[in-house]
Design a protein that fits this description.
Blueprint: E1 2-4, E2 14-16, H1 24-29, H2 38-51, H3 57-67, H4 69-74, H5 82-107, H6 111-126, H7 137-149, H8 155-181, H9 187-197, H10 200-205, H11 207-211, H12 217-220, H13 223-250, H14 257-264, H15 269-301, H16 306-335
Helix pairs in contact: 2-3, 2-5, 5-7, 5-8, 6-7, 6-8, 8-9, 13-15, 13-16, 14-15, 15-16
Length: 361
């Protein structure tokens, strides 16, 4: 199946979506949008990666744009002020670099380095200003991006974001131990862990500064709003597993829903792929139903007061961006060099990382 990427290049190019990964409902019912700031976003995030020494200069030059990290965020947080979107995009680029460092530490058996990094990230999350000049670029870049994110909403939002990311760091530690021990988690254990390693609640939290409003607990915990948020993230995580399965099998991975299904549910690889695809499709159909409930909830918040109107508009913006996540994630997986395993010289080693750079300088 062929599709055309929309808005991410001046000369659109055909994108081939393999039939096993094609989702016609995404292509028809989830029209792709892109934040108008995107061209500047791409340029500034590329410069930020260089300035913070998060990727070697030659890798930034050759691969940064093709990895499409800024495309992913510019297709998600529509309506965000430019400075908010820039902070989110830089943080997202950092997240991918961190994920690559974590992977190299696993591959090369560096538990002491991982333990130190884990501790430093926990510390920097609570006191980012004190880590802006840390000698490890990954820690300094994290501090910079987090400090900027902390500047948009009240301290209560910052505390919630920190709490959620502390859980992400710990989930990465559990993944590190599973991978180094060759332990493949059971399906339910994996699904629970994946919600943290994919940072479900982080990306959901970031909807709020994009909408310019911290949502009170009673709003965030509304059943329809929370379900819509979870479904958008589950879709992304499971579709990622579907697309990255060849890369992760090549890399001797143990963390993928398909791998857990093969190991613990006695499915063939083909049956596991079908199962993951079914889950992905169910996320889409259920979101379309819950989305309407969440929008009705948003309408009901407008009680004629200024605050009611503000909350109603913010919830509508957040739910609209949950919808945008589906198309952004879908096209990202078919445009980003991160998933083009068949073009790599070594299917177990991404060409956009270097083993020398994936450690402390």
């Amino acid at each position: 199946m062929h599709a055309f990427r929309h808005g991410t290049t001046t000369t659109p190019t055909a994108v081939v979506v393999p039939p096993s990964l094609a989702l016609p409902v995404i292509e028809s019912a989830f029209p792709r949008q892109l934040h108008p700031y995107w061209p500047r976003l791409q340029e500034k995030t590329r410069l930020w990666l260089l300035e913070k020494r998060l990727m070697p200069a030659d890798k930034v030059e050759e691969y940064a744009d093709g990895l499409c990290y800024t495309d992913l965020m510019a297709g998600y947080y529509l309506g965000a002020p430019d400075d908010v979107l820039q902070a989110i995009a830089d943080y997202s680029a950092w997240f991918f670099v961190w994920d690559d460092r974590h992977d190299r530490y696993v591959v090369h058996g560096r538990p002491d380095d991982w333990r130190r990094l884990r501790h430093r990230l926990h510390t920097a999350l609570d006191a980012p200003r004190h880590h802006l000049h840390h000698p490890d670029p990954l820690v300094a870049g994290f501090a910079d991006s987090v400090l900027r994110l902390y500047g948009f909403l009240p301290r209560t939002w910052n505390q919630r974001f920190a709490r959620h990311f502390h859980a992400v760091i710990e989930a990465y530690d559990r993944e590190y131990r599973n991978r180094t021990e060759g332990r493949i988690p059971g399906v339910e254990e994996y699904l629970a862990l994946r919600r943290h390693t994919f940072a479900h609640w982080i990306w959901t939290d970031l909807l709020e500064p994009s909408a310019g409003c911290e949502l009170p607990d009673a709003v965030r915990k509304n059943a329809a709003y929370r379900r819509a948020a979870l479904l958008s993230q589950e879709f992304a995580a499971w579709y990622n597993d579907l697309c990255s399965l060849p890369k992760e099998i090549a890399g001797d991975e143990v963390h993928n829903l398909g791998i857990s299904l093969v190991t613990h549910e006695n499915l063939t690889l083909e049956e596991a792929v079908d199962d993951v695809r079914r889950r992905v499709e169910e996320c889409i159909s259920e979101f379309l139903r819950v989305e309407l409930e969440a929008l009705r909830f948003a309408d009901g918040l407008d009680d004629g007061t200024v605050r009611g109107k503000e909350l109603s508009g913010a919830v509508r913006a957040c739910v609209g961006n949950m919808r945008n996540w589906f198309s952004s994630v879908y096209w990202f997986h078919h445009e980003s060099g991160r998933y083009m395993v068949d073009t790599w010289d070594d299917r177990s080693t991404p060409p956009y990382v270097t083993n020398e750079a994936a450690g402390e300088q």
